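Technical note accompanying the year-one report. For the benefit of new consortium partners, we illustrate the data format agreed upon in the data management plan: each record pairs a sequence with a structure-token string. No post-processing was applied to the example shown here.
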Amino acid sequence: MKLWGGRFKKETHPEAEKFLSSISFDQRLYAEDIEGSIAHAKMLAFAGIVSEQEKDSIVKGLEEIKEEIEKGKIRFSDEEDIHLAIEEHLTQKIGETAGKLHTARSRNDQVALDTRLFLRREIKEILKLLGSLQETILEKASKNIEVIMPGFTHLQHAQPILFSHHILAYFYMLERDKKRLEGCLERVNILPLGAGAIAGSSLPIDREYLARLLDFPKVSANSVDAVSDRDFMVEFISGAAMIAMHLSRFSEEIILWSTSEFGFISIGEEFCTGSSLMPQKKNPDVAEVVRGKTGRIYGDLINILVLLKGLPLAYNRDMQDDKISLFDSVDNIKETLSVFSEMLKTIEVKKEKMLAEAGRGYPIAADLAEYLVKKDIPFREAHISVGKLVQFAEEKEKTLEELTLDELKAFCYKFEADVYEAMKLKASVDSKKSFGGTATENVKKAIEEARKLIG
């Protein structure tokens, strides 16, 4: 008979039993389930609900079960879920005393605890991976501090910037991703155990004691909320989707930069693949799969949002599938962060190619407008004058630097011989000294400050 089967006369239909089983995926929570059960047994003894001897028997049995699982002596296949499976094994091991473990507890608050314990640990691991990727970005930025590249808007040449400045943008995106996960961790780190099925317990349980045992700084304030919501999962998967989005954008640029059309970088061969037909191919498959994984994590987010959107309070069985989305997003974001960081380490920057491309497309036009502003020409007037100047240069098939001073003066009398210094790419870059700008001295300071953020 099922552990919950006292009220039933008929056995569960085999098809229904198979359909309702979650052991295929929630067995992953065995360590968290045992950790929570050991703490619960200790609390029951502390509150005088079970004896010390009974508590010791339960704890010893649970510890043995964990060891047997990890050694492969216990395997799960057709059990209903991990919670009942462990209790059944405990019953086989210590007898009827095992039945006291579930006192003042429901699978509803039990699974909420297990997922919070799981996610708490995984978030900490993901934060480490984010920090490691940030370190890789800083290392790449430091080694290429003098490299000038074309900055783009609308995928058109815009203004020259430092390559280091460009990739530091991703450092700050990841820093915000870390802050989001740190905030999520605070909301994950709330103890649900003791909420029971929905209403709490009439027994003299001590939830604060449980919180101390399990290292939870807070205890859930409402028993209905504790068992019915999964917003902490939604928040995490949303954060994972944001990380994936940032990595996907970075991957897209890496893919573009590695093409023969751009030729800005070369990716290490160990992170590329070839073609079964074309011998010459070197494909950026790792970056492409990172880009593809993003859609999968988005799917996890949509799945759990749709799963929850119509559920009345409190617990509903629909929620057993929340862990599928959670596990998938955890696994994919961890794998993606790890491989992306290793791939980024192998990237070789083609300095001369970037510099050559940075000079194309009249990138110092804005510098000329600002040059005129410094000569007391209103910006709107300067913008129009330089725009006409660019049109003239295009017609003459010249760069702005190739125009004579007389040609420049034809568009604005304020142009002087010193304008040619302002047209140099390095001068353009280093003139952007406003806070957060691309000037070399700014970027060097930014790297120093960024190192402090990751310790």
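Partners are asked to follow this layout when depositing records. Strands lie at 148-153, 156-162, 190-191, 218-219, 265-266, 348-349.
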